[in-house]
Design brief:
Blueprint: H1 2-9, E1 16-20, H2 26-32, E2 38-42, H3 45-54, E3 60-64, H4 72-75, E4 81-86, H5 89-100, E5 106-114, H6 115-121, H7 132-138, E6 141-149, E7 162-169, H8 178-189, H9 200-206, H10 225-245
Parallel strand pairs: 1-2, 1-4, 2-3, 4-5
Antiparallel strand pairs: 5-7, 6-7
Helix pairs in contact: 1-2, 8-9, 8-10
Length: 246
Amino acid sequence: MIEAIAEAIAPAPGDRIVEIGPGLGALTEALLARTAHIAAIEIDRDLAVRLAKRFPAERLELHVADALVFDFAAHAAHGALRIVGNLPYNISSPLLVRLATLREFIVDQHFMLQREVVERITAAPGSKDYGRLTVLLAAHYECESVLAVPPKAFDPPPRVDSAVVRMRVRAQPQTAALTELAAVLSAAFGQRRKMLRGTLLPWLAAQGVVADDIVPTARAEELAPAVYFALAERLALRRQERDGAR
């Protein structure tokens, strides 16, 4: 399974790979078998000591740090990054959202996550997994599930299935109104069981945004990402008009 994940990542000479959470170095070793040098971020100091003893510094550039606050932009000074890792469930969503704000410094991302998180990231409109995270990440990335990882691949086996997701950074985000997109998604999915006539549409009306093309009886998960991107653009334009009138 480790070999399959490394093959999916497919390191090439000159790639600036950053591994988040190398742990005992299983994937690290497979990556270093394919490229001369990688960097790694490990928050656990004891594990970092073990990694430093196992891999020479000229091959593994080790950072004892928290990935949620690590300065990825500074590390990308000499080239855009390819980020990989096995992300703990408790930091996966906030880390993915943070990395989305740093997309200009990143080429792609390969992460092993709980299967349910990968299903949320890659969900299609109308499915139960489709939600705020799906649309937000779709603005920045082309996402696909590339590998299922069963519990037996781990020791000890967890109680959940895992999967590897590939996230290729788009040359341009699907919308420039990313702040407005987050606001629109919050209004739409905050009460996702309700029809949009009771959630998103009155919120948009209060912002001065006309959304007559949205079916009032639809629910948040029925709207395609492109619809949310268009609404974000309208909201951004309306806010600009308001600011200009002051």
